[in-house]
From TrEMBL:
Natural source organism: Amycolatopsis thermoflava
Short name of any one Pfam family annotated for the protein: SLBB
Family that this chain belongs to: Belongs to the complex I 51 kDa subunit family.
GO terms of molecular function: 4 iron, 4 sulfur cluster binding; metal ion binding
SMART domains: NADH_4Fe-4S (SM00928)
Record-annotated NADH-ubiquinone oxidoreductase 51kDa subunit iron-sulphur binding domain positions: 278-323
PANTHER family, alphabetized: NADH-QUINONE OXIDOREDUCTASE SUBUNIT F
Taxonomic lineage from the root: Bacteria, Bacillati, Actinomycetota, Actinomycetes, Pseudonocardiales
The protein's name: NADH:ubiquinone oxidoreductase subunit F (NADH-binding)
This protein's UniProt keywords: 4Fe-4S, Iron, Iron-sulfur, Metal-binding, Ubiquinone
Amino acid sequence: MTVLEAAAPDLAAHESRNGPIPWGRDVVGDLAAAGLTGRGGAGFPAARKLAGMKPGGVVIANGAEGEPASRKDHTLLSVAPHLVLDGLQLVAEAAGAREVCCYVSPRSAMAVRTALAERREWDARPVRVVVAPETFLAGQESAVIAAVEGRRAVPADRLRPGVHSGYLVQNVETLAHVAQIVRYGPAWFRSRGTADEPGTFLATVGGAVRSPGVYEVPFGTPLPVLLDKAGGAGPLRAVLVGGYHGAWMAPDVTLSRAAAGSLGAGVVVALGAADCGLQAAARIGDYLARESARQCGPCRNGLPALAGVLSGLAAGDAELARGAGALASLVEGRGACHHPDGTARFVRSTVRMFADEIARHGRGECVARR
C-alpha cells in the first residue's frame, strides 16, 4: 500500500491493515536499494543520511510544515500517524538512538499525542513531542535541532549537517515511506515513479483547482494529471511548483526534479489565466521578507530589497526587472541558512515567467483587469 492507501484512524485499524512494525530488517540497505530521498524539500538520499549517524544520537520526525501552502504533513499525521511513527521507530532502532522526538506544528500535536498514547506497548523507544512555532523557518533542520534542545527555532550553520552533531532529522512523509519500504521491500517501492526518482510523493494542490487537497502521485507524473486529480482547472497562467521557495512553471511541466527543478515539499499552486502573477508574487515576496530570521545581511537587507522589486514590478515599474537578477545574486549562497537562496530562486522565476505581465504593468494594464 502507498502512504495514503495505508491510512488508518487508530492503532487497531493500522495493525489490521499494515501489520506490526517489521523489526529485524537491514533498514539502511533497504532504503539504499529503494532510492528513497527526503520528502521535506532537500531531496537528500535517506540511506546516506541514516548511515552517517553514530549510535547514541537523537532522531527527530519533522512535521513542522512552516510552508504556508503545504498541508501534506498535517494531513499525513491526521490520517496515518501510526505509519509515520512506525518509520520513526525503525529509523531510531537502525541509528541506535538514545532519544526520539516528534517535532510537529500546533495543529498536528493532538493527533500525534493521541497516537502515541495508543502505542505504549507497541514502540521500542519512547517519543517526546515538541511543538514547533508557526514560522516559515521553523522546519529547517538546524532550527528543528535548536527547538528540540530548548532554544529558539531559528536556523544555524548551513554548512554543518545535523548528523555531524548527533541529530538525524527526517520529514514525517519520509518516515512513512520508510515504514512501507521496510514492510514491502525496495522493488515494491521502485514499481512506481521513474528509475531516477522512484516512488510516490504527497502533493498539496491549491489555487485555481476545483478540489484543493493532498494527493499522492508517482514521480514523473505530468502536472495536468495531478491537476485532474484535484478536480481539474480552467485555463492557467502558470503554476508555482515547490512552494514559496519554488519556482513558477508552465502548466504542462512533468513533476520530477529533472524537469521542474526542486519540488520542495510537494506544493503545487495553480494560477488562473485571469489572475495576476505579479500581484501573487509580491504578496509571497513580502511574506518571505517578514519571515526572515534576521541573523545575516542577506536576510536583514537583501530580502526586503527583493520584496521591494516584486512590489515595484506589480506597481508598474518595469525597469526593476533589469536589476532583479543582479540583486538576487548578491544574496545567493551568502546567508546563514538557505532562506535567501530560496527567495532569490522565486524572484528569478517570477521575472522569467511573467515578462509579458511586467511589460503590461509598465503600460498601466493588468491581466486581472481585462
